[in-house]
Amino acid sequence: MPHLVILYTSQLDAEVNMTALCRQMADAMLTVRDEEAKQVFPTGGTRVLAYPAPHYAVADGGAAGREAGGTGDYAFVYLNLRMGRGRSEATQQRAGQTLLAVAQDSFAPVMAQRHIGITLQIDVGPEVFDAKHSNLHPLFQKVTP
Q1: What residue spans of the chain are helical by DSSP H?
Q2: I want to staple 2 with a disulfide (CB 3.0 to 4.6 A). Which of 45, 83, 114, 141 is the partner?
């Protein structure tokens, strides 16, 4: 962990490079530092996954959007960061602000063209079972002679 899962209305596939967004989000997560300037999220444990929703209903079905001069084809993005316990509230807030800034920047061109809602939520433990099996972490361990 941490895992960032992005759920979004599928019409955004034609308007947003989701693979690039995933990379931007992962890179942003790796920049987050705690109060002691330590990297908050382990490189080998940082994962960002995006899933389009082919079936959805958003708000009023587009009536207000059409009335406001838009198409009424609303889009929605839900970003959910799941992190383990033990990080301070300030660190959690810092992570949220960092990811929100990337999301706002990434979706600004889309928001200029359509009505879209974006939600970022961070969830923290408690886990009732937490097992890990990975050969990724050793790739990022610094070997000191």
Answers
A1: 18-31, 63-67, 89-111
A2: 83
**Residue ranges of E strands in the chain:** 3-9, 47-53, 75-83, 116-124
CB neighbour burial string for 54-87, b if at least 16 within 10 angstroms, e if fewer: eeeebeeeeeebeeeeeebebbbbbbebbbeeeb
Q: Is the pTM of this model over 0.85?
A: yes
For the chain, what percent of residues have pLDDT higher than 70? 97
| DSSP reduced 3-state for 92 | helix
The answer to whether the beta carbons of residues 107 and 77 sit under 8 Å apart is yes
Residues 97-120: pLDDT tens digits?
999 999 999 999 999 999 999 999
Closest C-alpha among 137, 132, 125, 133 to residue 87: 125
* DSSP annotation of 40: S
